[in-house]
From TrEMBL:
Pfam families: Citrate_synt. One of its GO terms (molecular function) is citrate synthase activity. GO terms for cellular component: cytosol. GO terms for biological process: carbohydrate metabolic process; tricarboxylic acid cycle. InterPro entries: Citrate_synth-like_lrg_a-sub, Citrate_synth-like_sm_a-sub, Citrate_synthase, Citrate_synthase_AS, Citrate_synthase_sf. Its EC number is 2.3.3.16. This is citrate synthase (unknown stereospecificity). The keyword Transferase applies. Pathway: Carbohydrate metabolism; tricarboxylic acid cycle. Transmembrane segments: none annotated. Keywords: Acyltransferase, Transferase.
Amino acid sequence: MRDLIALAAKVPAIIAALHRLRKGLSPVASRPELGYVANYLSMISGEIPAPQQSAALSAYLVAAVDHGFNASTFTARVIASTGSDAASCLIGGLGSLAGPLHGGAPSRALDTLDAIGAVENIDPWITEQVLAGERIMGFGHPVYRTEDPRSALLKEVARGFGGERVEFAVAVEERIPVLLEQLKPGRALHTNLEFYAAIVMELCGLERALLTPTFAVARVLGWCANILEQCDDPKIIRPSARYVGPAAPQPLP
């Protein structure tokens, strides 16, 4: 447990330091008088964040801390079940965030808004994507078939900031169900965590390159809890598989 706590505490500091170094800036030390979230934002920007930004990002981190056996958590638990060390378990979880369908989704949700550009482009852009069978990033979830409750929470957080960006995001969200009912009757598509999470993180001053790392700042605590739980079970996780390929060749008589 001590190793996991130490590693989890280092993740936001490492992310902030690497981000600044890549921009040619010196890392910023943490401030003892600031809380966890305010310190993270401060170590990134070099400035003390506004209270609203700290509260908004805190809401996101709490909403994203854990969510069942998602890809990254399952990866971390599988590694833990082998008896591996804490660092290897967390690295495995981090590696699963590289793809666009898990941790990489928030920045791509902003790309969707940028691609649409304006309210008058919502209908033609969404129509083109749906008819082409393309995925609309920020929408849809493998578990939820209704609105993601985390999305509803972050939508209200975003509305607390107000502004054209938030209003545009809400307009996009409201049009998609209407268009889908016309184009694909019976097919529901709702916002997932990443859609409004991306808006909230953007409003907190985080660049797109930091959205997935910030997701890791939240989820690393969930990984740690799952790793500890998995360590209490001495059995290795080894899912069974069923062959569905061509039948084996038959011997000649």
